[in-house]
Amino acid sequence: MTAFDYDLFVIGGGSGGVRAARIAAAEGGAKVGLAEESRMGGTCVIRGCVPKKLMVYASGFPEAVEDARAYGWDASLGMFDWTRFRTALENELNRLENAYRGTLKNAGVTIHDARAVVVDPHTVALSDGTRLTAKHILIATGGWPFVPDIPGRELAITSNEMFHLPTLPKRALVVGGGYIASEFACILHGLGVEVAQYYRGAQILRGFDDEARGHVANAMAARGIDIHCGTDVLRLEKTATGIRAVATNGTEREFDLVLYATGRKPNAKGLGLEGLGVEFGRNGQIVVDEWSQTAVPSIFAVGDVTDRVNLTPVAIREGHAFADTVFRGVPTRFDHGLIPSAVFTQPELGSVGLSEEAARAQEEIEVYAATFRPMKTLFAGRQGRVLMKLIVSVATRRVLGCHIVGPDAGEMIQLAAIPIGMGATKEDFDRTLAVHPTMAEELVTMRKPVRRG
Ligand code: NDP
Predict the structure, then answer these.
(1) CATH number, domain 153-262
(2) Atom of ligand 1 nearest to the CA of 145
(3) Please, which contacts does 153-157 make with residues 24 or more away whose CB atoms are closer than 8 Å?
(4) How far is the CA of 437 from the centre of ligand 1 (A)?
(5) How far is CA 334 from CA 47, 118, 289, 296, 313, in A?
(6) Choosing from 112, 320, 403, 436, which is the catalytic residue?
């Protein structure tokens, strides 16, 4: 019998890699090593979801203070101290990074703070010169921001740098119309920055329900974000006072900061996989089967490096399913079919299941929708409206999709995803008693479809 140094060697200490390593070691009894070249926790914890959400919170206080005044408080907003926030953020990320390390150590995983490349199907070489063998290798190296090759691209930053800015800009341009662009446009605006967002397509948040996208975009514009759809940047130029963006709409505007959020690419290059028979897709992703196995039987991959659905909870479930299958003797495939998600714009968008457009292309549907001004902000004199939407199959009565735009939409959609995943019908929703007074009660009180067809 060949003795390997490890049963499993994981490359990448992000959401997917950490979960796989922990389950394989703690519940599968495997001897596990994990290499991370940067900070433990990966994109989500260090330069993604977590610091982003804390920035979302930070950016919400000016409105909260205004609302407090409307509620009778003698409240006033002072200055935002970016450096103080950034220091607190860094401390929190250090705490989380240590927690991740602690969890892995407690599970018995050996951490290698080094870059690892694959030498052969059972060997990795670390940047500190060590070579290690493993029965299985898991690639969980995530993704990296992509900036298109335009003149002056070096003047732009990506989401990676957002959390380390020395100062907050006065005028910012956000390029892109996806999750990251739209979220940062709102964050920066909330922090008092003058924000323009350029997106090449017809409407931001492509892929989400059209009505929900329109609702978010209108609300963002009403708050003062200068959204330009059908607009892309031709080139960026350094000026004495900032960065000039020359755009396809004929404008030349100057900004202090240009943030490119034009997608992310799988981090699969330079890992030594090219010569081993591992297959790559058009976007550079590692091609895996439903078990997250590559064309080389001992090498698996999970998370953004496989470019299936690039979300932290998906990477976690893929990593968990891999560990269950290979180390716990419980064959498990993660079903990518029904994935709830939230976009932390202001207002938030929560979504699960099919958009109206996708559902209609599939079968005859009924659409139930309600828009209303929620009690809390209406009282404070705000005009912002919530959108609640259910897409229902005429044939089976099953709720095929749910889309919510409004405060705490992310929290609401998490719960709506449970009955929808269980196959609940519109009548199941109707049978559920309302919780009053809440926003979510609208989900169980919409009686008549607004459209059918
Ligand atoms: P997305 O793929 O969501 O959006 C990329 C945007 O950039 C799109 O609007 C796209 O336009 C545009 N774009 C792409 N290429 C170019 C180009 N060459 N020139 C101009 N524009 C371009 O990527 P993000 O960077 O926003 O996010 C990356 C991933 O991170 C997402 O897939 C998402 O899954 C995940 N994420 C999830 C979050 C959440 O769950 N809340 C938050 C943040 C990220 P077009 O639509 O025309 O292709």
Answers:
(1) 3.50.50.60
(2) 25
(3) 153/236, 153/260, 155/236, 155/237, 155/238, 155/243, 155/258, 156/236, 156/243, 156/258, 156/259, 156/260, 157/257, 157/258, 157/259, 157/260
(4) 36
(5) 25, 26, 11, 20, 11
(6) 436
CA–centroid distance, residue 221 to ligand 1 (Å): 19
Q: Annotated catalytic, 403?
A: no
pLDDT in tens, 266-308: 999 999 999 999 999 999 999 999 999 999 999 999 999 999 9
CATH, domain range 6-144+265-327: 3.50.50.60
Judge if 6-144+265-327 and 347-452 fold alike in CATH terms: no
Whose C-alpha lies nearest to ligand 1, atom 33? Answer: 310
pLDDT tens readout for residues 173-228: 999 999 999 999 999 999 999 999 999 999 999 999 999 999 999 999 999 999 99
- Give the integer Cα–Cα distance in Å for 214 and 1: 62
12 within ligand 1 shell (Cβ under 6 A): no
Which homologous superfamily does the CATH classification assign to the domain defined by 347-452? FAD/NAD-linked reductase, C-terminal dimerisation domain (3.30.390.30)
Report domain extents, the chain.
6-144+265-327, 153-262, 347-452
